[in-house]
Amino acid sequence: MSKSKTIQVENFKIVLLSRNEQEYISLTDMARYRDSDRTNYIIQNWMRTRNAIEFVGLWEVLNNPSFKSIEFDAFKNEAGSNSFALTPQKWIEATDAIGIISKSGRYGGTFAHRDIAFEFASWLSPSFKLYLIKEFQRLKEEEHSDLKMEWNVQRTLAKVNYQIHADAIKENLIPKTLNRKQIGFVYANEADLLNMALFGITAKQWKELNSHELGNVRDSATLEQLVVLSNLESVNALLIHQGLPQHERLLQLNLVAISQMKSLVNNIQLKKLKDGSGS
User: Fold this and answer.
1) DSSP codes of every residue in 61-109
2) How far apart are CA 206 and CA 192, in angstroms?
3) How far apart are CA 257 and CA 193, in angstroms?
4) Measured between alpha carbons, how far is 59 from 61 in angstroms, rounded to an integer?
5) Per-residue pLDDT tens for 73-110?
6) What is the pLDDT of residues 175-218, one digit of tens each?
């Protein structure tokens, strides 16, 4: 699956395409730096040079086991002559190249692996290449920072869940908060079953008591409650599989909610996550 992002290089928007965990940069967008009305002509002019053919051909030899080297040699022998012409589509079809891709449609164009795109940028302008590399590196640093933050959040939640497990082992007696009438009532809506177990109220009841508030009972939940709610969904699925009737599941879920909330209220790692430190 392909995903795209953009960077800004000297007031030109350059699209980046991620395919098979590899970065491809739009040569079409880069060519607008030279001539915005004839981008295809600019790319073809570059590809007919001997240096370009040798570079993209060597890249394919190093990275593409299916690359047709015989066809590549034929292009290399013709490169540089006045009669030689080569389009990205012709190159791809003749050699089974993967370093350059051609996309049709409104958001299509010619894309090249970043190694090849940087070589094309050198041909366009050395200064343009430097700005392109700078912006590309900036984007990669931002992505790395986002991944690190996501990893920290996942690590923190893992520590939180471990704490829940440890506290559950220590606790022997959990007080009940739902009365018999509440426990005996059958909730046709499974979502409300979880709401009652955790919040002690159904979604409709919450709305009646908070008619001035936007959203629903879960929108107003704390981070601790959201963590427990996610866990209750898994527990409820297990209890359903075991064949427990709804009123018994409500009792079990309520006990789980009480136990986990007690663990989370004073959890140091969760406090750090809420404060934004995440470590």
Assistant:
1) HHH-TT--HHHHHHHHHHTTSTT----HHHHHHHHT-SSEEEE-STT-E
2) 11
3) 12
4) 5
5) 999 888 878 888 889 999 999 999 999 998 876 667 89
6) 346 666 665 555 557 788 888 888 888 888 888 898 887 778 88
Tokens of 43: 């790319």
Structural domain containing residue 42: 3-124
Dig out the tokens for 251 from the structure. 């009792």
**87 plus 156 within the same structural domain:** no
Q: Are residues 151 and 270 in the same domain?
A: yes
88 and 13 share one domain: yes
In this prediction the pTM is 0.50
Of 124, 103, 171, 106, give the one whose Cα is nearest residue 12.
124
Closest CA to 86 of 112, 116, 50: 50
187 and 113 together in one domain: no
Are 57 and 161 part of one and the same domain?
no
Q: pLDDT (tens digit, 9 = 90+) per residue, 31-55?
A: 988 888 889 999 999 998 999 999 9
